[in-house]
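ligand=iron/sulfur cluster
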Amino acid sequence: MRKIFLAPILEVLAEGLVWLCINLERLPLPFLVSRTGYANPRVRRITGWVGYWAHTFRLTLPNIHKWMKTKGDLFPLVVQVQTINRCNASCSFCPYPYTVHLQEKRIMDDELYSKIVDECVSEPGLLDFVPMSKNEPLLDVNMEERIREFRAKAQPHQIVELVTNGSPLTPARAKRLMDAGLDMITVSVSASNEETYKKVMVGLSWKQVMNNLEALAQENLAGLNVYLRFIKEQGNHRELNAFRKRWRHFNHFNFNVNNRAGALRGYEMKVIRHGSFAERVKHTLGSHIYPACPYVFSSMHILENGNVTMCLNDWGDREVIGNVRTQSIREIYNSPRMKEVRELMVQGRYEEIEACKGCSFYHEWLKPLEAQENVQVAVPATR
Ligand code: SF4
């Protein structure tokens, strides 16, 4: 009886929470003004923990809830494009050395890139364009031109963003990227000293990246929002506070290592567990906000040859669902298979999707708690 009475109240509260999350970035919160990119209306409110999550919610929630109500067609809110399939590092949290690195080197041709840009800018629903995926994007020597092309064609609200390890981000390169119209750049650092850096960001020079960041901090960053990223794992998580203190003038965010849909080797040795109470709270809150995994509702990942994989988190490229050379983004995103995958997810049938069944997002966030307890959160890792 009590349950029947409480159910509609809880439903209204959950709907209110979702509304708040989606609209958080647009609320007039005076403290949400970034130290970097403050003069750029597209990114000035993306700052700190609240700004970061507000932006993330805006990118990941609307399409899921639209799907739950209408099951209608979607266009990705975020499109990631791999313009080159190369990286210059072998980071401990990344499967690159034993996945993408094994392919022959390839660079996306300009005609294909322009086709993708043209489709994205014609869709007002597209919010973030990221010409980076499973690579170090600044190894593409034409990156400035690619950014410039997107900015010249984009609608005023559409953001162009990069994620880099910072080693090729020399002062000259940073200036050229800003001139080209880059709105936001995230530099993956994940350490606060050289010793840890060498273990986590394997193959990169601490000195070189620190010099690049020091030089970047001296630039006029009114138009460019800069985030430093810290991926937490067993070997570095105690340094998070020192990292924050050292780089006060940039924005920061951090998250736990994930197993990249089962592709990351040794995941169980790296992941940080927070104990069952914290896991339960995280799971309960998460499942109210996200009724399904947001990746296939909100983002698209396009490889250098035009292939589109089901989920950008799947480093094994287990399911290619189309190719943008011969199909449109909209057509691929609303293909019968994508609709089937979304429906399986809404029904909680992740075990029936090849990439998802070994994915830590599924095992730690989406799988019912009772099922997790039975197997003590055993996440299949390493293919
Ligand atoms: S659960 Fe599936 S859709 Fe979600 S991140 Fe993992 S592989 Fe991607």
